[in-house]
Design a protein that fits this description.
Strand content: under 5%
Helix content: 55-70%
Radius of gyration: 24 Å
Shape: extended
Order of helices and strands: HHHHHHHHHH
Oligomer: single chain
Largest sheet: none
Number of helices: 10
Number of strands: 0
Length: 233
């Protein structure tokens, strides 16, 4: 309207409002995801208790879950299939203490974690996913690329876990820099050599995945940046 005054909003004010909305939405999403995770944990607990009260046969647990899925999947959908219910049971067996279930992880992440048999390896990925804010896809890639095993090639298990737990600060670059690096996300064909420009273009196009592969302490400053070391460029 003609009588309305034009008010120029302070940039900080608008930024604060946007942050409030974004933060609240993220909290709501995490709350929903955590409730889903706890639902699957409770299902796993109930299945396990029922299994222990049943017949003492190895195949009884499989029959129990299969029949349960047949009873509830038509009503509640594919999220309660035999495979999902088997994961629920495995989830409870792996994390039998409810308070140990982290609210920061979603169901996809826990499905990845419970399929790791090695307790130390599983703990490592828990800490790294928590500290680095990995999504489920990012965690899946790190597991599939053998991040834990690659670090063990140049470090002992004790030091790798201590760094992951933030119990000590890395003393040398080999403790956090992966060797070898897995750069399959660049989409380059297998070859014995590449031109620098080809590698650079592929890395810039896949920057997020590349920084994730490098690990902690790396950030993107410029496409090309001149660096002088003792007068050498």
């Amino acid at each position: 309207m003609e009588n309305e005054k034009i008010i120029h909003l302070n940039n900080n004010f608008v930024s604060d409002v946007r942050n409030i909305i974004a933060t609240s939405r993220n909290i709501a999403i995490r709350s929903v995801n955590f409730e889903r995770v706890m639902m699957y944990w409770k299902l796993g607990e109930r299945i396990f208790v029922e299994e222990q009260q049943g017949e003492q046969r190895a195949e009884y647990g499989s029959y129990l879950i299969r029949n349960l899925a047949a009873s509830i999947e038509p009503e509640f959908g594919s999220g309660f299939s035999y495979r999902q219910l088997a994961f629920c049971r495995q989830f409870y067996r792996t994390y039998p203490i409810a308070n140990a279930v982290r609210s920061q992880f979603n169901w996809m992440q826990y499905r990845l974690l419970i399929q790791i048999d090695d307790n130390d390896k599983r703990e490592y990925y828990e800490h790294e996913a928590l500290h680095n804010g990995w999504t489920g896809r990012e965690m899946e890639r790190q597991i599939n690329s053998g991040l834990y095993e690659r670090l063990l090639m140049s470090n002992d298990k004790k030091s790798v876990l201590e760094v992951a737990r933030r119990e000590r600060i890395p003393e040398n670059p080999a403790e956090i820099i992966k060797d070898p690096m897995v750069l399959e996300f660049l989409g380059l064909n297998r070859d014995s050599s590449y031109y620098e420009k080809d590698m650079e273009s592929a890395m810039i196009s896949n920057l997020q995945a590349f920084l994730l592969e490098l690990g902690n302490g790396f950030s993107f400053v410029a496409r090309q940046k001149r660096i002088l070391l003792e007068d050498d460029e």
